[in-house]
Amino acid sequence: MAHTHEAVLAKIRELYEELFFHDGYGEMRIEIRILKRGQKEVILHCGKQYRFVVDYPYAGKAKLAGTADASSGASSLEGPERG
After folding, report:
1. Do residues 29 and 45 lie in contact, with contact meaning Cβ atoms separated by under 8 Å?
2. Which of these, 7, 61, 63, 78, could form a disulfide with 3 (CB 3.0-4.6 Å)?
């Protein structure tokens, strides 16, 4: 069953609106392939992404949360205390 251009454009618009109002990043890509019998296949790739930027005040220090402390042999579940 062949679809119409209007059906494809309506789906593109629906996906665009879904991505636009998504609370995060998103991606949409359109792929078109030539088929036999005078047809083309239109493939819509649409994905959402959630990205977070988190401050890391201990950047550059070797000790990470949950890693063993080489000097004491203890395991730390928290970063260095703030004074």
Report:
1. yes
2. 7
